[in-house]
Amino acid sequence: MGFYDGKTVLVAGATGLIGANLVEALLETGAKVRATLHEEPAVIVDDRIEYVTVDLKTAEGCTTALKGADYAFLAAADTSGAAVMVNNPMAQITGNVLINTFFFEAAVLEKLERLLFISSSAVYPDADYPVKEHEGFDGDPFETYFGVAWMKRYAEKLITFYHRRYGLKSAIVRPSNVFGPYDKFDPERSHVLPALIRRADSGENPLEVWGAGDEVRDFIYVSDFVRGLLLALEKCADAGPVNIASGRLTTIGECAEIILREGGNTETKLQFDPSKPTTIPYRAVYTEDGNRRLGFKPEVSLEEGLRKTIEWFRANGGDA
Questions:
Q1: C-alpha–C-alpha distance, residues 2 and 5, integer Å
Q2: Would you list the DSSP string of 210-224?
Q3: In a domain, 261, yes or no
Q4: pLDDT tens, 160-212?
Q5: Max Cα–Cα distance, the chain, nearest Å
Q6: What is the pLDDT of residues 45-71, one digit of tens each?
Q7: For the chain (length 320 residues), average pLDDT per consecutive 10?
């Protein structure tokens, strides 16, 4: 019998990129999948899923969602693109603090067996090398991430408290940049890759890329990331953070070139605009320790992942 077989597993935040793909992956494990909805309808339609509509910003909503669950993945979060991060960073604070605080407390009160929290690589200080897990609280985070990063840091410390004081088995995952099907492609909420995919597919020429194009990132395809999450809850429920990333560094400009190539837009030119909002110029996380703990290795290349994402976007009407 597998680790998830027969267990009631809650995915909190089932309509987002990570939550939707996690629901699909859990259905293949033999788990009894429960998933939360709030303002948006379900994106994975399957009779095997028990959907509950709750407001996770309330104690009552979290209690309802967790009642009777064995394991839980907290994928629910208020997220935003670079423009919001720069112009209105407060937008990501209060809602997330409420979700995290009420959810962790309810997990203890409902005697949840295991919890996984998706933190962020934004917690790390500015560095020009791949940062390791133990550096997550070294100095302040990058200035643009200051508020949201300290919100995530606070959540990690709360989990540590509940783990030490109440024995809540908890996994903390710090991802690099995740992308793939079920991402947000609309102009107001999209991150860089889905935004570029949407605009390239609309025929924009030249394709404008915010920033100088030399910003360095690690992008991981969502199926790889979700596989890492499933392993983390099973093997790393000791409240010790673990980085999950592809281990491949690339620039935003290179990603834009791949998107044009994989999407068949070979005649489109690129135009960079350094005056537009961007975030940290370099972010890389060290993955060898985490990969060893998890027994994990990414399988989907950046090129293949972007090709699959473009195909999914087009198959879903190009207006996800």
A1: 5
A2: EB-S--EE-EEEHHH
A3: no
A4: 999 999 999 999 999 999 999 999 998 877 889 999 999 999 999 999 999 99
A5: 60
A6: 999 999 999 999 999 999 999 999 999
A7: 96 96 97 96 96 97 98 86 63 92 98 98 97 98 94 98 98 98 88 95 94 95 98 98 98 97 95 88 97 98 98 82
Give the chain's domain count: 1
Give, rounded to a whole angstrom, the gap between the first and last alpha carbons of the chain.
37
Pairing of strands 177-179, 219-221: parallel
For 76, the token pair is: 């629910």
d(CA 270, CA 204): 10
Q: Write the CATH number for 170.
A: 3.40.50.720
Cα–Cα distance measured from residue 183 to residue 202, given in angstroms and rounded to the nearest whole number: 17
DSSP-assigned states of every residue in 268-282: PPEEEETTS----SB
Residue 95 lies in a domain: yes
Name the token pair of 266.
């070979």
Check the CA dihedral 99-105-111-116 and report its sign.
positive
Taking each helix axis from N to C end, the angle separating 302-315 and 192-201, rounded to the nearest 10 degrees, works out to 60
pTM (2 d.p.): 0.95
Q: Confirm whether 15 is domain-assigned.
A: yes
Q: Which structural domain range is residue 15 located in?
A: 8-182+220-248+281-300
102 occurs within a structural domain: yes
For residue 136, CA distances in Å to 141, 149, 162 come to 9, 10, 19
Alpha-carbon span 80 to 289, nearest angstrom: 29
